[in-house]
Amino acid sequence: MGNAIVLLSGGLDSSTLLAVALSKGFKVSTLSFDYGQRHRSELTAARMISISSGVLDHLVIKIDLCGFGRSALTDAIDVPTNRSVEEMNATVPLTYVPGRNTIFLSYALALAEVREADDIFVGVNALDYGGYPDCRPEYIAAFQNMARLATARSVTGDRAVTVHAPLIQMTKAEIIRLGLSLGVEFSRTISCYQATENGLACGKCDACILRRQGFELSGFADPTRYIESEMVTP
Question: The CATH number of the domain where 89 resides is what?
Fold first, then answer.
């Protein structure tokens, strides 16, 4: 296998995604973004996971998505908590960051051309995040079509980039089982939308609820460090 770019947030899904790419024999460069997210401790997790996985290199791109606003991850908007999965998927969540996946994939496409990588891996999931417009299969297919028109390598007759989204139709429990089978240490990952600087999870946001339910349904113990479990009673 040749070179591949893996979008790595430091969360459960993208860490499993990295393990999938490595298991297929790709030589991986991981790409993360410091975009103004309130849960910046995920960047520390992404760096440590990249180092421990033995990737070629780990690149962090700093961009400012706070200027756009209108997202609970980048603006002064409360992160929704204690919601059911039905409530999460009823409409586009407040945690949706406008244009984020398009921006991230565009950076990955540029890096792929420079690194002569034919493959990009992205950990979008349409089942647990049905309300996110840029996590749908048709979105990935559309970006794939655009990618084949957008790079010098593709228009000069060389190999075009392929965008892989292997987790897109998997449940959280299935992703967890897959990750564990590939040796992912989920205790290192951070999914919480409002994790502390030390990586403690709130246990109440949509990401925490989906993660906790995923471990329950997978049959494996949840290794997440939650704020509630770290509190010391005097």
Answer: 3.40.50.620
User: Which pLDDT band, with edges at 50, 70 and 90, does 234 fall under?
Assistant: very low
Structural domain span for residue 186: 3-230
Number of separate domains in the chain: 1
Both tokens of residue 187?
């205790």
Sheet of strand 57-62, all strands in order from the earlier edge strand to the far edge: 57-62, 27-34, 3-7, 119-121, 162-164
What pLDDT band is residue 231 in, cutting at 50, 70 and 90?
very low
Q: Is the pLDDT of residue 9 over 50?
A: yes
With contact defined as beta carbons under 8 Å apart, do 29 and 117 qualify? yes
Give the model confidence (pLDDT) of 55-78 as tens digits: 999 999 999 999 999 999 999 999
Residues 192 and 205: their CA atoms lie apart, in Å, by 7
Task: Give backbone dihedrals phi and psi of 185, rounded to 5 degrees, phi first.
Answer: -95, 95
Question: Cα dihedral sign for 109, 110, 111, 112?
Answer: positive
